[in-house]
Automatic annotation (TrEMBL):
Residues 18-258 form the Radical SAM core domain. Its cofactor is [4Fe-4S] cluster. Gene3D superfamilies: tm_1862 like domain (3.80.30.20). The keyword Hydrolase does not apply. One of its GO terms (molecular function) is 4 iron, 4 sulfur cluster binding. It holds the Pfam family Radical_SAM_C. InterPro entries: ELP3 (IPR039661), Elp3/MiaA/NifB-like_rSAM (IPR006638), Radical_SAM_C (IPR032432), rSAM (IPR007197), rSAM_horseshoe (IPR023404), rSAM_sf (IPR058240), YhcC-like (IPR005911). This is TIGR01212 family radical SAM protein. CDD domains: Radical_SAM. It comes from Anaerosalibacter bizertensis.
C-alpha cells in the first residue's frame, strides 16, 4: 500500500488530495489560557507543559489574528512559495473562552486570503453544548478539525501527567464531535514514565477503534522549566532511544485503520529548552528512518488493524 511516496496516509497527502495543492498550517495563538493552569482544574498544568503552553511555533499573542496570519505566511513563504492555508489555533486550550470571543477569533482566522480551513487544539472537558454548536456551525463553513490531547489511555499515567480528565470524558467528546460531523485528531505521547511498549500500543489500538479522523504521535519531551524536568532530575526514568521510538512508531502505523490520517510522527521540541531526548532535534533523520523501517519490514499502515 502506498499513499504517494509514503507507506502511511500522511496529512500532506490527504490535504493535497482534498485541495489539489500544498496546504500549509499557520500556527496561531488566540490568547487563551487553560483550565488546567488557571486553577479551574489545576494550577500547574500537565507535567510536561511549560509556561508558554503547548504551541511550538506560534506567533506572538500580542498580534491580532490577521497580523499573525500575515507574519506566518511571510515566514513560511521561504519554504513554500505557493499553496493554501489552514489556520491552526495551537497554543493552550482554544475553546476555553466565551462563545462570542471564540466566534470572533475563528471568523477572523478563516476569512483571510488563501485560508481554506481551521484547526483547533483543545481539551475534551472544554466542549460545552454552546461550544459544540459553534464548532458545528464552523464545520459547515470551512474544513474544520479539532485536536484532543489524550496522550495515553492508562489512568495511572494520566494521573501522573496531571491530565485532569478521565478516559470517559474523551469518549464523550469524540462522540459529540462525531455526531456533528466534526473531524477529530487525537494526540498520543510515547515514552511516558512506567509505560511499557504494550501499554503504548494498547493506546494506539484503542484510538484505532474510536472514530478519530487523524492521529499525532509525539515523543515525550523533557524541557527545562517544566515540572517533568524537576521530576526527571530527582527520579531519572528510561528515555526512548531513536531506534526504540522508530520501532514503536512503525508498530503503531501497522495498527491504524487505513483511512486514519497521520498528522505527525515526531514532535518539534524547543531546541534551547530540550533536555531529552536530544536525538529528536534531527527531525529529518527520524522521519527518514521511519520510512526506511517501513520499507525494510515491507509493511504499511493498517496491515495489522
Ligand atoms: S492541556 Fe495543554 S495547555 Fe493545558 S496544561 Fe495540558 S498541555 Fe498545557
Amino acid at each position: 500500500m502506498m499513499w504517494g511516496d509514503k507507506r502511511y496516509l500522511s496529512l500532506n497527502y490527504e490535504l493535497r488530495k482534498t485541495f489539489g495543492t500544498k496546504v500549509i498550517k499557520l500556527s496561531l495563538d488566540g490568547g487563551f489560557t487553560c483550565p488546567n493552569r488557571d486553577g479551574t482544574i489545576g494550577n500547574r498544568g500537565c507535567i510536561f507543559c511549560g509556561e508558554e503552553g503547548s504551541g511550538e511555533f506560534t506567533s506572538s499573542r500580542k498580534l491580532s489574528i490577521k497580523d499573525q496570519i500575515e507574519s506566518q505566511k511571510r515566514f513560511l513563504s521561504k519554504k513554500w512559495s505557493e499553496g493554501k492555508y489552514i489556520s491552526f489555533f495551537q497554543n493552550f486550550t482554544n475553546t476555553y473562552s466565551t462563545v462570542k470571543d471564540l466566534n470572533k477569533k475563528y471568523s477572523e482566522a478563516i476569512s483571510q486570503n488563501g485560508v481554506v480551513g481551521l484547526a483547533i487544539a483543545t481539551r475534551p472537558d472544554c466542549l460545552s453544548e454552546e461550544v459544540l454548536k459553534l464548532l458545528e456551525e464552523f464545520n459547515k463553513k470551512t474544513f474544520l478539525w479539532v485536536e484532543l490531547g489524550l496522550q495515553t489511555i492508562h489512568g495511572e499515567t494520566a494521573k501522573f501527567i496531571r491530565r485532569g480528565y478521565e478516559l470517559d470524558c474523551y469518549e464523550k467528546a469524540i462522540m459529540e464531535l462525531n455526531k456533528r460531523n466534526v473531524k477529530v485528531v487525537t494526540h498520543l505521547i510515547f515514552g511516558l514514565p512506567n509505560e511499557t511498549n504494550k501499554d503504548m500500543l494498547d493506546s494506539v489500538k484503542y484510538i484505532s477503534n474510536t472514530n478519530t479522523w487523524g492521529v499525532k504521535f509525539h515523543n515525550l519531551y523533557i524541557q527545562e522549566g517544566t515540572d517533568l524536568y524537576n521530576y526527571y532530575i530527582k527520579n531519572p526514568f528510561h528515555i526512548l532511544s531513536i531506534d526504540e521510538y522508530i520501532s514503536l512508531v512503525v508498530d503503531s502505523i501497522e495498527l491504524l485503520p487505513q483511512n486514519m490520517v497521520v498528522h505527525r510522527l515526531t514532535g518539534d521540541g524547543k531546541k534551547e529548552l530540550l533536555v531529552e531526548p536530544r536525538w529528536t532535534l534531527n527531525k529529518l533523520k527520524v522521519l527518514s528512518s521511519i520510512d526506511k523501517e517501513l520499507k525494510q519490514r515491507n509493511t504499511y499502515q493498517g496491515i495489522y488493524y
